[in-house]
Design goal:
There is one protein chain. The protein is of the alpha/beta class. The chain contains 21 helices and 29 strands. The chain is about 35% helix and about 20% strand. The relative contact order is 0.10. Pfam families: AMP-binding, AMP-binding_C_3. It comes from Streptomyces echinoruber. InterPro entries: AMP-binding_CS, AMP-dep_synth/lig_dom, ANL_N_sf. GO terms for molecular function: ATP binding; long-chain fatty acid-CoA ligase activity.
Length: about 650
Amino acid sequence: MPLSYSSPSFPPDSSPSSPVPPTPPEFTYDPDGEPRLVEPETRRLDGEVREAYVPPLVPPVTHGSLADLPFENAAAAPDQRVISRRTAEGDWQHLTAAQFAAEVLALAKGLIAEGLAPGDRIAVMARTRYEWTLLDFAAWAAGLVTVPVHPTSSVFQAHWILQDSGAIALVTETYEQAAALGPEHGRLPALRHVWVIDEGHLDRLSELGAHVPDQEVEVRRGVLGPDTLATLVHTSGTTGRPRGCALSHGNFLCEVDNAVELLHPVFRPRTGEEPSALLFLPLSHVFGRMVAVACVRARARLGHAPSLGTEDLLADLASFRPTFLPAIPYMLEKIYHSARAAAERGGRAASFDRAASVARRYGEAVEARRHGPGPGPTRSLKTARAFYDPLVYRRIRTSLGGRVRHVICGGSPLGRSLAAFYAGVGIDVYEGYGLTECTGAATVTPPLKPRLGTVGWPLPGTRVRIAADGEVLLSGGQVMRGYWEPQAGGVVPAAPDGWFPTGDIGRLDDEGYLTITGRKKEILITAGGHNVAPAPLENWLRAHPLISQCLVLGDGRPYVSALLTLDPQGLDHWRRMNGKHPAPPELLVDDEELRAVLQHAVDEANGLVSRPESIRRFAILPVDFTEEAGHLTPSMKLRRAAILRDFAEVVEGLYDGG
């Protein structure tokens, strides 16, 4: 049971105790070498758990910075493989800790040779590739601050980030990206350098810095500390302009040190197998950056996959063969749906469904055993799982490279059913929750005691509180210094009282597990006065193989409705399986059979909510929501105002006669 303690009643928005955690105890291991489970301390108010806290597993860093990591690795294990990079021939070239540190040092000296001073900002606009991670550590070693720019950003978005950050230098991946921003240079007086990765400019920088003494880098590294600014990551901005989140070296170190210790089976497996991760998430987002830093910190071999095209990614997975993957729910949903579609095309849909049911029941039985009340999988369930393993489960694992045993998942809720399925397949999914403002994860599923369908416990060293209105508040060493406000002279604190308001609505159960139920600003209030959280309905429907995106609406309206967009692969599979001739989506949106399938999906989603919260009508759009059209942020969040504006006529049609 969690360590629960009583205390006087306190207003949920007050601070009954300092959010600064006490000095952590020494971390210990059990006889099997696994980390001991540290359960949350919880606080209650009016019978409900309103606060949960897990003590840190490692002491906070008091000196040094991220810039030291490559050099510490080189000193401790110079011959250990820490990075694998794609060659022009398509093979993987393995870099040892010593080789990676040498490349970091050479590029850092090149940046110094070009006149970049400590504290200068350098922007990076590139896909997920080795050079991104190299630039991060080289910039830090030179005392610089990195500023990610998403590679698909518009010229306007990129200009805003460059202007807001006051970037001195910009590194783009392609000449085309640099050329597109060329006309903006005159309106960016701080920008003095533009370098292009594909043009070999990083190699030239490394050559240019050959005359700079190594000691210059050592001096710059030496003045950095945990409180030094490391990066400015601009939030996606579902409304208004993006804001720069000022994350320090200490924010990252607090986050990754506790994550590496907690996720011991991922980063330090007992089997002696070399841990490795293939990173395909955007490094312009904090989740991908956090995973990259964690891999370097733990000396887990890191590879980069720049292309998210299905064939390219599958080829990278097959050749790299990672042991764990950072992922988002959308990817796991697509893997499941693709596997079922393949089984259906081969006439094995019923067999796949039985195998999926066995996997889910097996995963739930393992969960129940870890929580105490359940005996674990029965003998018959173990037999059924063993039967389906070579027929179904092994094929799914093979599609991920064959060695993946762990997935770190974030970005949006995965759902209990899918989490149980993957656990039964033999892939543990550690689901987490967090924001850019808290350097990635604030909660994560504990490996020794998962609770499927939640986003886990507070990351060690983190406090989670539920305010009076249900908003999730966070406190911990990974919470950012503040927002970057150049007009106000630098960084403006975002949580002066020690608690950061996330804008998300959630609840804590009796054992301190967090469930996110919606966004505070996205709560819909119908004309009848009913509060509706759209997220549960949207997440459920988005997991359907025929649905790409879903937007639930109804604010100020007599009832709830929804806009649905179609998934191209799912639609193509449905068409072929139902004998439909090829047709563009705009000719299929009125297909009665298609609407019947989607109506069934909507009816299932409505089972999650009360009658006043249920979707009464829906419209199928002939186009998908895209970032290019302004309907999605780079992190795939819905821009609700833009969607409602662009599809206003369709929305009004949902309420004609209502």
